[in-house]
Amino acid sequence: MCHQCCRNNRSGVVICSNCKRKRYCYECLAKWYPKRTQEEIEIACPFCRGNCNCRVCLKEDVVVLAGDDKADANAKLQKFLYLLHKTLPLLRHIQREQNSEIYVDSRIHGSQLTEEHVTKSLLDDDDRVYCDNCSTSIVNFHRSCPNPDCSYDLCLTCCSELRIGFKPGGNEAEFSHQQFFERVDSQGALVHDQITENEKGVGCKIQVSDLESKCTADMSCKFPDWIAENDGRIPCPPKELGGCGTEILTLRRIFDASFVENMIKSAEELTLNYQSPDIRLCEECYLCHPTSSTEKGSKDFAVRKAAYRENSDDNFLYCPNALQLCDDDFEHFQLHWMRGEPVIVRHALERTSGLSWEPMVMWRAFKGAEKIIKEEAHRVKAIDCLDWCEVQVNIFQFFKGYLEGRSYRNGWPEMLKLKDWPPSNFFEECLSTAWC
Fold first, then answer.
1. Are 427 and 320 part of one and the same domain?
2. RING-type domain location, by residue (predicted)?
3. Which candidate in 132, 146, 166, 173 could, as Cys together with 161 as Cys, close a disulfide (CB 3.0–4.6 Å)?
4. Is residue 118 in some structural domain?
5. Last residue of a domain, one of 260, 275, 306
6. Would you report the helix, strand and coil content of the chain in percent, each value rounded to 5?
């Protein structure tokens, strides 16, 4: 019986000479292991190699190759301290925003308020709150509509912009609204293109024409005015912008009072004696820049030539080998990452047993995720990376697109990314083969 498909009526199978137990049929090998030859499977089957992607093995935990525990612990500590050091400015900025919003509410109510006076939102542990205007994630403080039929949420950045007279969310929010109408318009055009000769009735033409006219009219209209009150209060936006237009947004918090302040104190204590590595972004990387542009030099310095620009010092990309990494390579990686340069890590999958990012393997794992999170997984929400708009996509077509490629009608390549699916707290359980 084939270990992959559990069928015993296949015409040909390959028996593993290593374990002498597992066998894989020709059809499964061609479909799920196209990069492996039958000779390689006979020497050691996918199960013995630790990368079997049958339904049972997909649920197994990924095994990471063991290393020096003491060295790994020290390196991990330095990485955590580095992250804390870099996160401190952001935490202080969040705290300043929260204090500013409390000050606004204190002026409105005519009395000094603290975080204890801010109502805590009732959320589940795995809930994530987004700004309904600019779609960014909300960290803690935000303003929310008290209308139970509305529940519009607004981030503090949009609140601040609204008070000084700017359009909240800037170009991102406006672009999001415009792309919505353009997407509806393109869908109408797509429907028009797909009408066959037998369906070209008057009713179909009228529906498409009405849809296109509505989109054009909506695009030409200005968005409704939405301004803050003189005392700093912010009304819920009109229905055209997703709100109810009747209530005043109230200040809410997600975490306990003084949560951010306590995080800042803890981070400052832990990083008190930490010295951040001195990284000069304006200079070329002396660690990996080869002394010559020869192929031999690029191999010796773990770089890969990616361009052929004359009189340029950035023709090479840092390309480390995951099997030969040491503690110093972390700072080396940081130098390139802080510059915004891509880094190609070689042999990353060889450090694990069972780790797989093959599109169709992940699709099969996603099918099993329905039972874990008890959600329908045939159609999921995705983000179009061209315009950052939300779309609905069939989960099989999503992964098939990464195997064969997706494109728009004009020939441009299309790239989609799933929007928080599966939820972060279920990711390891649903996709253990992609979690490490």
1. no
2. 2-49
3. 166
4. yes
5. 260
6. 45, 10, 45
Instruction: Give the neighbor-by-neighbor strand order of the sheet with 390-394.
Output: 390-394, 379-384, 416-418
Q: What is the pLDDT along the chain (436 residues), one digit of tens a residue?
A: 899 888 888 888 999 999 988 999 999 888 888 888 889 899 999 888 877 888 787 766 555 445 555 557 777 888 889 889 989 999 999 999 999 999 999 999 999 999 999 999 988 776 778 898 888 889 999 999 999 999 899 999 999 999 988 877 665 555 555 544 454 454 444 434 443 444 433 333 333 334 334 433 443 344 567 889 999 999 999 988 889 999 999 999 999 999 999 999 999 999 998 887 666 666 667 666 554 444 444 444 578 888 888 887 778 888 888 888 776 777 788 788 887 888 888 887 766 655 667 787 777 777 766 655 555 557 778 888 887 788 888 888 888 888 888 888 888 888 888 876 666 656 666 665 555 5
Query: Pairing mode, if any, of strands 379-384 and 416-418?
Result: antiparallel
- Token reading at 277: 């590595």
203 shares a domain with 122: yes
Cβ atoms of 380 and 421 within 8 Å: the answer is: yes
User: Pairing mode, if any, of strands 303-305 and 142-144?
Assistant: unpaired
Regarding pTM above 0.70, the answer is: no
Structure tokens at 101: 């919003």
User: Within this chain, do residues 323 and 365 fall inside the same structural domain, yes or no?
Assistant: no
Where b means 16+ CB within 10 Å and e means fewer, 175-209 reads: ebbbbebebbbeebeeeeeeeeeeeeeeeeeeebe
The domain of 300 spans 295-350
Edge-first strand order for the sheet with 153-154 is: 119-120, 250-253, 142-144, 153-154
Do 155 and 169 meet the contact criterion of CB atoms below 8 Å apart? no
Same domain, 163 and 146: yes
Contact 279, 339 (CB under 8 A): no
| Nearest-angstrom CA–CA distance, 421 and 266 | 32
Q: How far apart are CA 240 and CA 90, in angstroms?
A: 33
Number of domains making up the chain = 4
